[in-house]
Amino acid sequence: MAKRNLIQAITDGLRVALREDRRVLLLGEDVGVNGGVFRATEGLQAEFGSDRVVDTPLAEAGIIGASVGLAVNGMRPVPELQFAGFIYPAVEQIVCHVSRVRMRSQGRFSCPMVIRAPYGGGIRAPELHGDSPEAFFVHQPGLKVVCPSTPYDAKGLLLAALAEDDPVLFFEPMRIYRAIKEEVPDGHYTVPIGKANVVREGRQISLFAWGTMLRVSLEAAELAKQKGWDVEVVDLRTLSPLDRETILASVEKTGRALVVHEAPKTAGLGAEVVALINDGALLSLEAPVGRVGGYDAPQPLFSLEDIYAPDAKRILHGIESVMNF
Amino acid sequence: MNRIDQCQAEGKSLSPALLTEMYKWMITVRHFDRRAVHLQRSGRIGTYAPLEGQEAAQVGCGFALEKRDWLFPTYREHGVSMVHGLPMATIFLYWNGRPEGCISPPGVNIFPIAVPIATQLPHAVGAAWASKLRGEDTVTVGFLGDGATSEGDFHEAMNFAGVFQLPVLFFCQNNGYAISVPLSKQTATETLAEKAAAYGIAGVRVDGNDAVAVYEAVRTAADRARSGGGPTLIEAVTYRYGSHTTADDHTRYRDEAEVNGWREKDGIARLKQTLLTLGVWSEEQETAAWEEADATVQRAIEEMLAAPPVDHNRIFEHAYAKLPWHLQEQRAEMRKLYGNGGGK
Ligand SMILES: Cc1ncc(C[n+]2csc(CCOP(=O)(O)OP(=O)(O)O)c2C)c(N)n1
Description:
The complex is a heterodimer of chains A (325) and B (344).
Chain A: E1 2-5, H1 6-20, E2 24-28, H2 44-48, E3 53-55, H3 60-72, E4 76-80, H4 91-98, H5 101-104, E5 114-119, H6 134-138, E6 144-146, H7 151-163, E7 168-173, E8 181-184, E9 197-200, E10 205-209, H8 212-226, E11 231-235, E12 238-240, H9 244-254, E13 257-264, H10 269-281, E14 290-294, H11 305-308, H12 312-323
Parallel strand pairs in A: 2-3, 2-4, 5-7, 6-7, 10-11, 10-13, 13-14
Antiparallel strand pairs in A: 1-8, 6-12, 9-11
Chain B: H1 3-9, H2 16-41, H3 55-64, E1 70-72, H4 78-84, H5 88-95, H6 120-133, E2 140-145, H7 152-163, E3 168-174, E4 177-178, E5 181-182, H8 183-186, E6 202-207, H9 211-226, E7 232-237, H10 256-263, H11 267-278, H12 283-306, H13 314-317, H14 325-338
Parallel strand pairs in B: 1-2, 2-3, 3-7, 6-7
Antiparallel strand pairs in B: 4-5
Helix pairs in contact in B: 2-3, 2-4, 2-11, 2-12, 3-4, 3-9, 5-12, 6-7
The complex binds thiamine diphosphate.
C-alpha cells in the first residue's frame, strides 16, 4: 500500500483499468503528453501508448460523441473534460445520447463510459473553472453520477464506475485533489456505486454532503460539537442513484437533517435529498430539513469564491437554524 | 518595393509615425505581459494567460480597426484590447479575480473575456449582424486560437457569417499549440485559413510576427466587410514563448530549441529593425520607450493594488436586472453572517 492523494489515487485507478481491460481507453484534451492539466493521467501515455491515452482536438461534443460510438462498438472510453465548467458544450451529447442509448435501442446497445470532470471552486481559477454542475446530470435519467471525497474512495469508485454497464459521470473535487493523503491499496478494489458513507457518527442532526463540501461539513460538525450538538456527517459519494437507505436511516436516528453543497441552492441536489427525506422519514423529523448551498448567482470570479461557497461558519449557521427550529 | 512602401503606395496610413506608435505599443504590451507573469509568481494576481510572442499579431490587428468596431476576445487578447481602449488596470483586475475587471469603459466596444473556447464567435456573428441590420459602418472581430477551430461553435459561426454575409472578421492567432496539443493534432488541414473556403468566405494567412503584414491583412478584410463584401477568416501565424497559462508547464510538451527558433522571428525585434532602417528610431528612443512602458505598467499595477477589498455584495448585484426575492434573502443572510463590506 502507498499513501496517495486524491489525484494520485485516480491515476492509479486509471492505470489498473488500462492494465486489466484492453477495452479501456482514455481520451481528452491534453491527457496524453501533458498528463492532463491536473496530472491525473500523468505517465499513462508513456506506459500504454497514444492509442489508449489519446490527445484529442479541443472539442467536448466531439470527445463525448465519439465516446458514444466507441462504447457502443465494444470499447470502454474514459473521456476527460478538463473542468466541469467545460462540460456544457458536451451537454447535448450527454443528455441526448449518452444517457439514452440503452433506452432508445431498447437494450440492443448500451453506452458504458466514465466521464471524468474536476469540479467545484476553491483553487483561484478563472471564471467557469469552478462550477458545480452535478444537479443537471442527476436530473437526467439514464446517467449515474459519482463524486468521491477521499483518495481511497476515488480509486475504488472509479474502478466500480468502469465496471458499470451504464454511463457514469465522475466529478472530482479539485479543491481537495492534493489536500489529503491516505493509504490507498495497490491493484484492483472497488467501492460500491450507490452507497453513501457515514463518516462521522452523531445523534442530533445529519449532515449530507459530497466532494468539496465534505471536509467543510466535518469542520462545521466540530464547531457544532463545541456548542453541544452531536452531528452525524454522511458522504453521499453517489449522487445518482442516491443511497436512500443510508440517508433515511441516519435521519430516523437523528431526527434532523441539513444538506450542504457548493452549487446554487435553488433546484440543486439538496432539494432532491429534502424531498427524499420527506417521502421516507417525515414522521422522524423534529424540524424541516435545511439546505446550505452556493448563492443563486453565477459562480463568481475568484476574489469572491470563498464567500460564495459555504464555509464552516455558514454551515454552522445552517445547523443552528435546524437545531433551534 | 518593400512592404512599407507598398502600404503607403496603396494609400494606407502606415506612416513612420504610425509604425513608431505601433512599436511603442508592442513594447508596452510585452512589458505588461512580463510584469503580469511576475505578479502571478509572487501571488499578487491569479492564474494568468501570457501572450509574449504574439504582440505583433495583436497590436497590428488593433491598429487596423476603428474605435467604433467591436471586439469579442478570448482570455489572451490583452494587447489588442489595450490598443482598442481597455485600461490596463482593468486587465490586471480581471486576472486578480475581480468583477470590476470585466467592465469595459463606455464607448469601448469590447465584450467581456470568453473563457469557454470558441463560444464568443457566434456572438461576434450576431453583433455583426446587428450592425448590418442597422446599416452601420462597423466591423466586429471575433478572436480565437488554433485550438478553437476544433470546436463546433467555430464552424457554426463561420457558416452563419457566410450565409448572411456579415461584416465580421475571425482573427485566429495560430500560436502552434492549444495547451499541449500541437496544430498537427488539432486539424488535418495544412492551414487554418483554408477552412474558410468550406463556408464560402475569404481566408487569409499572414505572418503573425509581422505587425505590418497583420495590419494590412486586417485593414483589407475590414474594408471589404465595411463595403458589404462579407466576412474573412484571418490566420495570423505566430507563437507564444511562455506557457499556456501560469498554471501550465510548457517544457512538458515543447523543446527549448523550438521556442528559441521562434524568438529569432520575434515581431518586436523585426519592427525595430524596420524603424532603424527607415531612420526613424534610435537606441535612445528605445531606452526611453521601455522606460515609458515601465511607468505605464507600474501605474496600472498600483491602481490594481490600491483597489479596495472586493465588495461581496457584487455576487448578487448583477445576477438579474432586479433582484428576485430569494436572492434578496440570500444577500440579507450573507450580510448577517459576513458583514456588509469587503471580503469574508
Ligand atoms: C470549452 C472549453 N474547453 C476547454 C477549455 C480549457 N482550455 C483553455 S484554453 C485551452 C486551449 C486553447 O487553445 P487555442 O484555442 O489554440 O488558444 P490559445 O490558448 O493557444 O491562445 C483549453 C483547452 C476551455 N477554456 N473551454
